[in-house]
Amino acid sequence: MPRGNATASKALRPEAVPPRQGSYNAAIADQTANLAIRGLLLFLIGVFLALVLNLLQVQRNVTLFPPDGFASIFSSAWWVPPCCGTASAVIGLLYPCIDRLLGEPHKFKREWSSVMRCVAVFVGINHASAKVDFANNVQLSLTLAALSIGLWWTFDRSCSGLGLGFAIAFLATLTTQLLVYNGLFQYTSPDFLYVRSWLPCIFFAGVITMGSIGRQLAMYEYKVVQEKTHQD
């Protein structure tokens, strides 16, 4: 009898392995699919915001595109929306990834109503840069800087969000300077190395906004995974 029990247990062991491997592979496939969906959503949001905000800038004659340089879409160069969409996807996916690496999940104001208010404030900051007349560029830059920091304090308040915001805003401003220097487009009355001095503030606010959207999408995915795990 003991020998028969040992044989039976050995026969059962291989059968216990495949379900675990299958569950692991299914989890990896689900994570990959969710990552692709999140990236696509962030890309589309970035393209939409780029079209709307560029339209404001062009109507105000803040941004000028060469008439014979590129084909235009809604008064903008064709390559601007895809670039903004790609940057939005990278930023939106990077923020929750950094949170996981630091082991500090971001839970401050994690609901869609807060995210929508963040987007509204970001659009308002862009509207102010394009529509409101200030006495000089210094006053405009200081005002937008205060509004951008206020956006971070109201909807983020994380050190990782602040650091990534500054870093990405610096890189985006440097890239814009190179594009303007090469004549792909230009700003009217540039006052800071071919571009407007308030541009880093706009980039910073945009990074915080897309990071907020990316974190919210990642949190929704995490809740779905938890529910599936609980059901299993």
Structure description:
This protein is mainly alpha-helical and 232 residues long. Helix content is 76%, strand content 2%. A two-stranded antiparallel ribbon has the order 1-2. It is globular, with a radius of gyration of 24 Å.
List the helices and strands and how they pair.
Blueprint: H1 2-59, E1 63-64, H2 80-102, H3 112-131, H4 137-155, H5 159-181, E2 186-187, H6 199-231
Antiparallel strand pairs: 1-2
Helix pairs in contact: 1-2, 1-3, 1-6, 2-6, 3-4, 3-6, 4-6, 5-6
Function: Mediates feedback control of cholesterol synthesis.
Region (Disordered): 1-20
Membrane topology: Multi-pass membrane protein
Helix-and-strand structural type: mainly alpha
Through-space gap between termini: 35 Å
Helix and strand run: HEHHHHEH
Mean pLDDT: 76
Give the overall silhouette. globular
Helix content: over 70%
Number-wise, the strands total: 2
Q: Enumerate the spans where pLDDT stays under 50 for 5 or more consecutive residues.
A: 8-17, 67-76
* Strand-residue proportion: under 5%
Rg, Å, rounded: 24 Å
Strand order of the largest sheet: 1-2
Work out the helix count: 6
Question: Tell me about the biggest sheet?
Answer: 2 strands, antiparallel
InterPro entries: INSIG_fam (IPR025929)
Keywords: Cholesterol metabolism, Endoplasmic reticulum, Lipid metabolism, Lipid-binding, Membrane, Steroid metabolism, Sterol metabolism, Transmembrane, Transmembrane helix
GO molecular function, one term: lipid binding
Pfam families: INSIG
